[in-house]
Write a structure and sequence with these properties.
The complex is a heterodimer of chains A (277) and B (134). Chain A has 277 residues and is mainly alpha-helical. Chain A has 11 helices and 2 strands; from the N terminus they run ααααααββααααα. Chain A has one domain. The chains are: A mainly alpha (277), B mainly alpha (134). At the A-B interface, helix 1, helix 3, helix 4, helix 9 and helix 10 of A face helix 1, helix 3 and helix 4 of B.
Chain lengths: 277, 134
């Protein structure tokens, strides 16, 4: 295959991933590495390098809007970024010693977990009382709702921090944003409102991915010719997706996306078990 | 955030910082995408007919691995170097955002979050400057 043809095909796939990711709110990053490795036979290291760069582009692009609208909790984000960046740095070094087949199996499990989470709704359980640590860290805030500014409090900071370490490790190891784990940590563990959890997760993804992308750049995993269509394709797809009104079709798209993720998980599991990746 | 002890309102209120952070992120992504696209057009014209092969990992040449070398390659107008510069600018965008947050917390005299943000910035800079030796 020539570089030109490969660029066009990868660009199309990345565009579809970005579009579907934006329409469903699940992020397209998680399907990029399976797409590159399974469909195009790309080495896992190049795939992870290209995917991380694309993840930074889409999360930073959409975070810009959410931050301005006042949903994002910057203090919660900053505090938990200590955990995600430390985890990402650890994950980047772990990736050099964990065998590819094991990474493929971890990837499959994370894909299945993502599919399961996407079918569950928000776990919104707002709390009126902050725990002492959250109060000392001044994590409580407010966010815009149709009925005006709604204030909220935060709980279980250590558990959230621990889950964010895991999110960081997975982000670096698999070249994903780990949005599902991040939202789980804030929404379920720390009792943040769902909209605040998703936008703050998105805000943190770029910083998390940058921590391991730096290591991978220096290790020679980031190939400009491959990252070119991946980054621009996902970014274009996400931009178009954000401008489309989906309304009632979101459910159908979610099911479609979940189906794709399950198929990719099965394929990754098979490749991991047979050592074919 | 209006009721907490985050420091002075006005120019460095949390709301103002949110606007600045949003603008910084958007600008960074736009600049990075433009540089990548321009370099990409040149790359495809020059190397489009070459064979694409990513089955075997060889690793990038030294000219595409560090921030300094990438900038030098881009200044020589090598198409791969220009694309890589776009990608480096993208990686630098969240780092610049953390730096902006650090400045904002310093001006708000929020010592706790100055410390928190400084740790994140240190990890990011370590990764980009010293990372990679496994």
């Amino acid at each position: 295959m020539t570089v030109l043809l490969m660029t066009a095909l990868v660009g199309l796939g990345a565009f579809a991933a970005g579009l579907l990711g934006a329409l469903t709110g699940l992020g397209g990053g998680i399907v990029i590495v399976p797409l590159l490795t399974l469909a195009f036979g790309v080495d896992l290291r190049y795939a992870v390098g290209a995917s991380l760069v694309a993840v930074i582009a889409t999360s930073s692009g959409s975070a810009a809007a959410y931050v301005k609208e006042g949903y994002t909790n910057i203090r919660v984000g900053m505090l938990l970024e200590v955990a995600t960046t430390a985890g990402a740095l650890a994950g980047a070094y772990l990736s050099a010693v964990i065998p590819t087949s094991a990474i493929a199996i971890i990837f499959a499990l994370v894909l299945l977990f993502t599919a399961a989470q996407s079918l569950r709704g928000a776990g919104e359980q707002l709390t009126a009382a902050a725990d002492p640590l959250a109060r000392r860290l001044r994590l409580g805030s407010s966010y815009p709702t149709p009925g005006g500014e709604q204030s909220y409090q935060v709980r279980n900071v250590p558990l959230g921090f621990l889950l964010m370490l895991v999110a960081g490790i997975l982000s670096a190891l698999l070249g994903i944003g780990s949005g599902v784990v991040k939202v789980l940590a804030m929404d379920r563990a720390m009792h943040l409102p769902f909209k605040v959890s998703t936008t703050t997760s998105n805000f943190m993804i770029g910083v998390t991915a940058a921590a391991s992308a730096g290591v991978y750049l220096r290790r020679g995993y980031v190939d400009p010719t491959l990252a070119l269509p991946v980054m621009l394709g996902v970014l274009a797809g996400a931009l178009v997706g954000a401008r489309m009104l989906t309304g009632a079709r979101t459910r159908v798209l979610r099911l479609l996306f979940t189906g794709v993720v399950v198929v990719l998980a099965a394929e990754m599991l098979y490749k991991g078990a047979t050592g074919g990746l | 955030m209006a009721d907490d002890a985050a420091g002075p309102r006005g120019r460095w209120s949390d709301e103002r910082v949110e606007q600045l952070v949003g603008n910084l992120l958007r600008t960074g992504v736009i600049i990075a995408a433009i540089v990548t696209a321009l370099g990409g057009a040149a790359l495809l014209i020059q190397h489009g007919a070459a064979r694409a092969d990513y089955h075997l990992f060889r690793g990038e040449p030294a000219a595409l691995r560090s921030v300094g070398a990438v900038a030098a390659s881009a200044l020589r107008l090598e198409s791969r170097g220009v694309v890589q510069l776009g990608l480096v600018l993208l990686i630098a965008t969240p780092i610049a955002r953390v730096l902006l947050s650090l400045v904002a917390f310093v001006l708000q005299r929020d010592r706790l979050y100055v410390a928190v943000t400084a740790v994140v910035l240190a990890i990011l800079l370590f990764s980009l400057v010293f990372g990679g030796h496994a």
